[in-house]
């Protein structure tokens, strides 16, 4: 566990515990029985008794939060150790954690939240015992009570998160662009898949979804077809694009591999674990968003829960990835049995090479520069003209998969005991074959109509996305068009000037006294005079530097760029890719990162007076601000946050205008 997580999970409850102990020590037992005269707000029985109860309650709740955090860590460590033994142990351990962790997370939130409430209420009672009521005391009490009210609301709200927590851990629907094909639509495909399932001793899928882009995969999670039906049960995803470039044996090996996830012990993993685990990240995202929208005091109670969940996820994630790779190698063995090891090895190499070759035509399609009614046919025509595929670069790659982690292709081929010789490479790199394409089409009753429908649906989505994107660009481009003049404030100018005058005056006074005392030859006097004169020069130089930097605007923020007397040319905002802000003591630094290939302007002033520095190796420009800034000709105050937001908005607007010009 990293330092930040340790601080939140254990440091926060420990600090609250010790603070509550200190509050308990502050109570004078004699004061509990002391009754003051009417009209005074001094030590009262009610206030002191309340302080005793609240101090002990704060200790109790903070201790409960500490115990809950400790129990969560112990549960996670023991579960992960158990999960490393076998995939079955992984499922059992995760199932147990899934049931217990939400209760612990809510317990941590509630305990720390109530501990904070008790600590703050104690201080309200303490303020009550200070003496006669004053306007300041009353305002302070009201302010603290408002904070307590928000904390109580947060704690109560956290109790209702339990139900949502369970709901978010449920399997998530997979959003898929494709079409579910029945046996009437693809009788040959269904018969063939049944044969492959029987050959590999696997479960026949309940649904087959045909799509365009993603690779072959199976899932037990519910599948929501885009603009279509919701499918439950076991689903096989069959991509027309990849199948068009693979022969029958290679496709059989890939399908055998995927159906291998529905055989033996892997069936339990795939059906009952993968979907639940996929929902965990969504649950943690929900908690994180809830924390982000809370105040800092609320985050103090919520952050330990978030860090516990994130740490839990990271610990399990490594174990899950390990078993996922073991499962993939076992599924490879199933694919090799269904077809042949050589066919599966060739399909792995060919699949990665196809990914690279698909990039260019797919980019044209998504940018609406490829007009086609049948994307699969267009891909086949385009790639057939490119000759052989380059499979050498595929060896160290990991094939993408929507739910699982794959080992590198070289490792998978080595596990199949298939030599990486010329025969395999020639087979995997062969040019697109018309026979393979026609065989894929023969699996469906009307492959052309199916591919055309999928292409039309995707083209419609691309068009809608483009229209929405264009509208967003136009909206961004319409903003941030007026120029904003930014100037530095005269921070420390008068201070430096006064110090310079004092140093010079002090040097003159010491010199006059030394003459009066006939001590002109005294070395100590000379050192004092020299030091004061040097200090005066330094402070004078500092005040002159500040005056030079603030006598004219630092820069003007325009729709096109940042213009400044310190720059040889405007710093173009459309070339800025990212912006960051950081502070060191009272200095603020704004980092502007430009895109590769851009030639930034140069500084026209000396290092002592410049506010802009450029780091070409990092593609970064830095604006240094020694304090606050002013805006406009009226030199109104402008916070650093406002300046950062303005820069960010102007950069977005400039980028949007450039995109519109290029579209």
From TrEMBL:
Alphabetical list of PROSITE patterns matching this protein? PROKAR_LIPOPROTEIN (PS51257)
Q: Which CDD domains match?
A: M48_Ste24p_like
Q: Which cofactor does it need?
A: Zn(2+)
Peptidase M48 domain mapped to chain residues? 246-417
Question: What are the UniProt keywords, alphabetically?
Answer: Cell membrane, Hydrolase, Membrane, Metal-binding, Metalloprotease, Protease, Transmembrane, Transmembrane helix, Zinc
Q: Where can this protein be found?
A: Cell membrane
**Pfam families from the xrefs?**
Peptidase_M48
Checking Gene3D superfamilies in the record gives:
Metalloproteases ('zincins'), catalytic domain (3.30.2010.10)
Q: Which domain of life is it from?
A: Bacteria
Q: Does the keyword Coiled coil apply?
A: no
What membrane topology was assigned to this protein in its record?
Multi-pass membrane protein
Q: Principal localization? A: membrane
Q: Does the keyword Protein biosynthesis apply?
A: no
- TM region(s), chain numbering: 7-25, 59-80, 100-122, 134-156, 493-516, 528-546
Q: What is the official name of this protein in its record? A: M48 family metallopeptidase
Q: Which organism is it from?
A: Kosakonia sacchari
Which lineage do the record's taxonomy fields give for this organism? Bacteria, Pseudomonadati, Pseudomonadota, Gammaproteobacteria, Enterobacterales
